[in-house]
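To assess whether ligand presence alters the predicted conformation, the chain was also submitted together with 3-acetylpyridine adenine dinucleotide. Input:
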Amino acid sequence: MTNFDAVVIGAGFSGMYMLYRLREAGLSTRVYEAADGVGGTWYWNRYPGARCDSESIYYNYTFSEELYREWTWSSRYPEQPEILKYLNFVADKFELRPDIQFKTRVNAAQYDEENKIWQITLNDGSTVTAKYFITGVGCLSASNLPKFNGLENFKGEYYHTGHWPHTKVDFTGKTVGIIGTGSSGVQAIPAIAKEAAHLTVFQRTPQYSAPARNHPYDPEYIRQAKENFQEIKRQMRESTGGAPGDIPTKSALEVTPEERLEKYEEAWRIGGQGIFTSYYDITVNEEANKTASEFIRTKIREIVKKPDVADKLMPSYYYGTKRPIIDTDYYETYNRENVSLVDVKKNPIVEITEKGLRTTEGEYEVDVLVFATGFDGMTGPLLKMDIRGKDGVSLKEKWNGGENTRTYLGVANAGFPNFFMITGPESPSVLSNMPVSIEQHVEWISDCIEYMCENNMESIEANVEAEEAWSKHCGEVANATLFSKADSWYTGANIPGKTRRFLIYLGGVGAYRQKCAEIAANGYEGFHFEKAPAPIQGSIK
Ligand code: N01
């Protein structure tokens, strides 16, 4: 049986950097990746219009200044192929591929308490062992295809945005139906509408979206970013959301309506997430939230020419409590003659038929169905595997359908020694600029492993009390906001049977980093170690 010091799952941003760090530390490391290439999210999400909603000069690794200087982004919000190209560039530069086994899924992992080793079962039935078991599976990699009656009868083609084919899907001359208007749907709808003969959007919840106003970068702007790399990196790491920028200090309610409107108009003109970050209480105070929500509703009424369509597009939940979306011509697309909008909250989908789908109102015939129905977020990717810790207890059993989902810092689990999750539940993860949070976790984990090697430790495990306290803190921070009020994938409300819990730490990237650093500096407070009986042998330095 092959034995590694560390096994990492996933070759996206997380797994690639984890591999780099562990190899630098002298550990024999193997990454398993289900796809046939690197990229993670950016490998799978190839739907038309897919692009990032974090600004590209911040949506990259910062561990290597050389890398930062060598790579040049074309535009503010680059499309999926460019981000995938970047990740391939990183894999080439650091020669990562020889330690990644592609087209291989990890099905199960079991902690062998006696030998203090993880036994990891792959999809070909073989088993490898590793002292450290690390997941870099992302928060949004388990796609959610709701159980629609009759899908098997559909005679046309159908696709999920999170699992898009690698060859171009040609919509020319076809009638297309798309279900879902989250970030994926809002990006895909304008792109598909340009090609299809007719596009019908089946919308359950209308969304707030602001214009991205993507544009090619001015070479001088890029030159300055590269010049100021160290300062940008510091600001990203100390920020709230993972990108430089002013932390809002004012309440939306302490300024005059005129001043507020001017601020929102300016944010709308510049594009991006400016409305979301304009005042500190947008996601905390209902009245403050209403000012931003109403501003966007007014914009929708101005853009969408047909009043009945505009009415259907009016969102009513608290703005920002579902992922705030940025778009390119989303609302404008509803002015096209070849696009229609169906309200499936009012008239729910009853079944998928041979020729399309039926709502309570009638049947819609389509050649192609696109499911932009999202993901089983946060815990879904981890629970796709059968991960078992001490006493054979599985993560699924421990978390009990979401009722008991608890972690320590979002990186470790009581009962699961030597198991680390990169951007796991209850870390800042998806409510931050992901690469920043990924780098912080990877560095914390590799520092911890090096500490264990230096101190001859055989295992590390989170304490139950520390885990409970962290989970409680995480919940308290979330409950002080409006986030937990929304039916979103943030809370697990999109998955039937999943207990509603808000599993993202909202304390901010900088504060979280400091907390994790303090815990490490205090000898890994909240964890307990077991010493190795004899000095650790092997490839570890
Ligand atoms: O998924 P979603 P997504 N019948 O869950 C609808 C990241 N991301 O893939 O709101 C009818 O947001 C559902 O309706 P409702 C980003 O973090 C980033 O779009 O539940 N409709 C909703 O409209 C994002 O938040 C980027 O009522 C059904 C949609 O499907 C996350 O991924 C780009 C239904 C799902 O929306 C997920 O986004 C893309 C049903 N049975 C994604 N079930 C960028 O960086 C679900 N829906 C730009």
